[in-house]
Queue: 3 jobs
Job 1
Amino acid sequence: QNMQQTMPNWLQNRAYLTPNRVAIEWSKQEITFATLHKQVEKTVRQLTTYRIYKGDTVAVHMTNSIEMILVIHALQYMGVVAVLLNTRLTIEEIKWQVEDANAKQLICDTYIEGISIPQITTAQWSMGKEASIELQTHYHLDDVTTILYTSGTTGNPKGVMLTYGNHYHSAIGSALNLGLHQDDSWLACLPMFHVGGFSLLMKSIIYGMKIVMHESFDVRAVYNDMMKGKVTLISVVTKTLQEIITLADQPFPKTFRCALLGGGPAPISLIEECLEKGVNVYQTYGMTETASQIATLAPEYVLAKIGSAGKPLFPCELQIRKDGTNVSAYEEGEIVVKGPNVTQGYYNREEATKETIQDGWLYTGDIGYLDDEGFLYVLDRRKDLIISGGENIYPAQIEAALMSHPQIMDAGVIGMEDDQWGQVPVAFVIASGLSAEEIFDYCYTKLARYKVPKHIYFTDSLPRNASNKLVRRNLYEWLGE
Ligand code: ATP
Ligand code: MG
């Protein structure tokens, strides 16, 4: 018998269980779960006047704000699938994603010129009339609630369908990993249109936990909140953590539990600096397809396993495969994952879904290995692997080595065709006051000979997408290959 599992509407239930707890705090304001629920109901009545109905797909183009939070919860109350757009996308990219997702309307902070579907700005809906409504009193765990696009680092972005169940299990998996404390509050400075930021909203209502929201990333403000003991947890990406740790000139309060680091590779030097300054960093591994992290390094291993992304969250599974079979410890292969937080597939992309998900396992396209105790080390994207004279070379390692030089601000590495070796690594760098010779010399102290780039190209900028990730496929075009 196939009984679809349901749960009471999360925020409504939270408002019933712990009405007076603070849900969100932002720029000197705060709102309890009870009030948040009331405001979301009002938002639903307002949005309903714009002919948004259960089963629709609606795109959202908003930056972190209380209005964005209201809209996200309201769409869940209405049973509407939300497509959360990255606000750094170009108009062309927005158009493409909105059409690809078949979104019926766009809810946005301000009107966007050149989009074909009807738009509802915050000024419009928040002033507008109210209609009577029918709330989803229960959520079906198998229903899709969001379509979140991948960053488009290795190809066109793909719309990842995530269900209530995916988000629920992501929140639970994280709580089982970090534990939940009575006084926990989580600083949200990453954009909520990304899965990492979005997951905090779900955690807040599922755990009954306060979120301290920052509408944009102001490193000083974030640092002050951490220092004042206002938050016990924070989610960061490498760049934000780097900025925070540069400011740190005194120990963090004991109540600060951890910085959850995700979204991409993390330089070991940064983790070491955090440890020196007494900031607990939990390195994570995950992707849009896994509704945020699927593996995390537990704190007791931060020193012993530095550089590792840890072990899968309970009850997820993670394996390394080559040609369909599992490899042994330390052997490199593709990372495959499985778990209740993992997507059922990409929207409107049967082929890509079939290629990516096989027998319930998601092939991540990332290469990595497990050590003899099962700790994961992520190497790089499979597509960017360079094979030189039979040796595997991972551009990420070379980029990290280059960027460890204080005069190299940014670096991108790709493989160039070579008669003798098949491929050789070449590097594009943003550097000041350094010659190619000096960079080669530096590389020889950091890297095995065959990994040292054969050419250094100086440049003023590197191709980065709206998620600020290096798009190496564009570098190939620069090379003319
Ligand atoms: P696309 O799938 O469109 O190419 P993307 O993979 O960059 O874009 P995201 O879902 O935003 O889109 O990013 C997930 C990816 O980020 C992972 O597949 C992995 O390559 C990288 N990543 C995440 N965590 C880590 C980590 N700890 N170390 C190295 N890489 C990581
Ligand atoms: Mg990806």
Job 2
Amino acid sequence: MSANKTEQYAATTLDADRLAQSIKRHLQQSLGVDLEEAGPAEYWEALSLVVRELGLDLIRKTRHKERDEKARRVYYLSLEFLVGRLLGNNLHNLGIYKQAEEAMANLGVNLTDVLEHETDPALGNGGLGRLAACFMDSLATLDLPAFGYGINYRFGLFKQDFAGGKQVESPDGWREESCPWGIERPKRKQLIKLYGRVSERAGKAVWEDTQEILGMPWDVPVTGYGTDTVNTLRLWESRAAEGFDLSSFDEGRYQESRSGEIQAENVSQVLYPNDNHPAGKELRLIQQYFFVACSIADLIARYKRENGDNWDDFAEKVAIQLNDTHPAIAVPELMRILMDEEDIVFSKALSICREVFSYTNHTLLPEALEKWPQNLITKVLPRHMQIIHMINYHFLHTEVEAQWPGDNNMKRRLSIIEEPERPGGQQMVRMAYLSVVGSHKVNGVAALHSGLVKTTLFPEFNEMWPDKLVNVTNGVTPRRWLDYCNPELAKLIDDTIGNDGKVDWRRNLSQLDAINAYADDPAFQKKFAAIKHDNKIRFAAVVKELCNIDISPDAIFDVQIKRLHEYKRQQLNLLHIMALYRRLLDNPDLDVPQRVFIFGAKAAPGYKVAKTIIHAINRVAERVNNDRRIKDKLKVVFLPNYRITLAEKIIPAADVSEQISTAGFEASGTGNMKFALNGALTVGTLDGANVEIAEEVGDDNIFIYGLTVDEVAELRHRGYNPKDVYNSNAELKAVIDWLASGDLCPEEPDAFRPLVDSLLGGDYFLTLVDYQAYSDAHDKIVATWKKPELWWKKAIINTASMGKFSSDRSIMDYAKTIWNMA
Ligand code: HBZ
């Protein structure tokens, strides 16, 4: 890394005049539009083309530099990259935002309006996909040679709307609007095989009678902040291979293929909308193999172009990170190539794999751990199934045997193949075990989570390989999640601690620490509070436009935005809001500040209870927002179609950040970091990265409540009956009864049954147990809000203490402890 890159990097030489010239050129020559007929949408496209040109030029230069330096590259394999809008972010990273603003102004257009015309590529579900995007930003910013590999889905995560308060999904054909970022690279296309059978010829395995799919790469340039490094996000699109299934074509049956198997084009058609719950469908397995096979072939081709055919150096030049187990089939795929195509013996192939691969675990939820039926893998990828058996045999009979000689029970427990519990059941391939066995490092995503990975998820692996399981706490890019989404706060920080090359918090987030000195300063507090107020005014306008609800910027904005999942406990927030409403009805003159509870969340389309929670929140919102008796003291807003672009508007306007998962279930969370960075106070359990956030900000500056991981385990062990809590807490009982009564949804009185049954019939996520502590924590929030100087002091300390949670720090941790690159 160079010390002072800002002086030498290329894009900043573009002044407003030259930019305006380029914009005009693209309007006329690339888009065929006259200046007079161009609106913000056309200006968006033209400016994007200008930036794309810059990006492509810098990608080329980055590639040359890397080729000369012959450094190790990291390949980040992920089924999801939730990148969000790119134009504004790229302008910031390239250091030409101001110039672009001026150029647009000279052309008579407002850059902010122009940026609103970008569709948000929703190529991910939630945290896992967004983390991949933050990591790509940091890899480029840190000048680390990296490729992201994923799928160019035609349809991203579904669009969400509400009808009568219920979630309604519609397809997100994001590419139908023009998308100038992806550049098709036919020269780098790949042909991959599926199905067929394996024969042996001259002692060698031959995979034949296969069907072929073509993978076409689309490259998205990934700019870094203040550097010329531009990395590549290569997203594969599936196409029918030439000559694909000609027999059915001849017979006029070109909708079907030979054996009714999956159509090539369908493979990259749609992102599966499940988070923390695998779909288990053949098409999903094919998606996984498709992008893995294309990517591995692509990176091997690059290695050979740069280093020749010598496999001895492969692991020195290549590091592959598996983002969860979704790309785990990469392990047998690389083994297959090494053994069947490169004539490398099994033991050497396995040791190459283990040097190259590492795996990130993002969940402990048992139902979220991927397992594939052995029969399905045998059908779709027969050679891979054989290789998985070979790996498993070696692992069990050499490695497990050495550690626990003669212990067949242990072999059964650790086997990559899970035997059926009941006769007639299926054998399943445990993708997490395959990933652990095939990797040299396995990491969790926050300290608490990584500890649990060691002690509860993989204790035996940890015993066998004490150095394999490690922690890398997640982070977020401060460029998007502070500089870009909260420009006023970024400016206040610049004005206070400087921005002169020596101080550059955008690249070295720990420098925010200097803000701590101003936490008590009334003048600084005033400015900090005023910025939050401005952000709230802007956000209130968004709420008005999207939901037609009036909210006051003087109210506490209390926000829970994340996927809808019972473990994340939006239902706890809901029960508490219902109780607040009842308290106000009992006493409309209650001396409490105005509060607005804001939600944003999509539920997996097949997840019944999650959808019920959305419906219930919407119905409560409707009731509360239209009740004059409570004098606007309480408002509830559920923003439809929550996505990155909305997050960028909500987070800078939040006062309170809800991070209230059942302890032990949220691996890390990353929204929690974004809120604290923007000066919101967290109410949260000791779960995921909340623990480390609390360590950084100090216990006085966060509202921690509820059962700890150990207490959760103990309670489960003792046995727990939710009815006991329900019967002993009058307020809680009243709101659950109200939910069950049908009053909130008279036309469908049983609408909320699934939620009520889940709470009273087991309460797996311990919502009721934590209710009182949660309500008490909110009382403390209100008490603090009533002392503004105290509130703003805490808020400022939150922003000042987030240095650790930059994704630059996460990436440096990966580079040092996993990739051996720094
Ligand atoms: O990954 C999330 C974790 O829940 C969150 O705690 C963590 O901060 C974040 C980044 O490490 N996990 C997901 O977002 N998981 C998925 O989206 C997912 C998608 C498809 C699946 C399984 C999980 O099949």
Job 3
Amino acid sequence: VATGYVYHELYGWHDTGTQAGFFPADPRRGLQPFHHFEYSESKRRAHELVVVSGLIDRLTRLAPRPATDEEILAVHTPAQLERLVGLNDTGGDAGDGGTKFGVGGVDIARLAAGGAITAVQAVLDSAVDTAYALVRPPGHHAVAEQGMGFCVLANIAIAIKAARETHGLERVAVVDFDVHHGNGTQAAFYADPTVLKISLHQDRFFPGNSGFSTERGEGAGFGYTLNLPLPPGTGNGGYQEAFKRVVIPALDRFHPDLIIIAAGYDSSALDPLGRMMITPKGYRALTSMLVEAAGRHCGGRIVGVHEGGYNESYTPFCLLAVLEELAGVEEPFPSPFGLDNLGQQELQPHQEKVIKEAEKLLKDIH
Ligand code: 6DK
Ligand code: ZN
């Protein structure tokens, strides 16, 4: 399998500054300055493990280019693009007070969206079979009129809209296993039955007011938004069961022409921003099911786009597992963390309840 890989050093230079949002640094209140949660280390180190493990030698390196105004405007409002462009020389916040960027940060956000575009188009051009875009800043929370939750531009939504223009791409399924709800991707295509949006996330986490299973899309798009708000503590067993009983059957009903993974590793067992328990072995199993589904439906066309993941030591191994699966590597690089046998890794009854509810929603996917 030829697998494309997008990374750029500038992704590490996106400067989110000191802690903002929930915990703004404020010495007067005892809040010590600390780097923002969405800091470059986990992603930069993930890239370095891709190199040091030797996996890089089996990948086709793809150079990202910045997303154009036109590509951005297919998802975001003119007012938001104008506001961002106006802040590029000074740095600023993309919208919610927690989504900071430094001088030139909007150029880097364009390169992240462009990285997603590059990965998707390389697969649609058959230049590669599968691809992964290790981009930063992330994208799945950004909505038309504002950035939020560390996301400046809606990378995946922008890449889908662009591929429609350039390749006439028709049906796309997005599977989001980041621990937070993929609200931005959902919003961009809420009324659109040609984009199946599946998000598995920690129940009422971030954004706290979205990601409910009752959000199912609107108009013609009804049925094509599928949310699984899982209880904290869900691990490999719960996620694999959710994939077997909901995600894969949904893909089988939908018949996508392309599968995109919103690949966030904050659903891992060691993430500081999440309370789930997926291990590299679990990410490997989930990805393998998606790769298989892509083989059945769309000539194996599947693209991963990086979202969250904040443990600087663990995220690299989680990413490596996903990337190895996309590349069809038969002898995986071993993860040194032995968390596969944690108690309650297997499916628990309160997790199964969510899966059972979601199974009832499958019938509205055609
Ligand atoms: N909220 C992500 O991992 C981002 O999904 C997670 C974002 C959690 C944000 C928590 C937070 C605020 C911010 C500002 C004001 C109030 C609350 F997008 C990904 F990176 F993938 O700080
Ligand atoms: Zn996240």
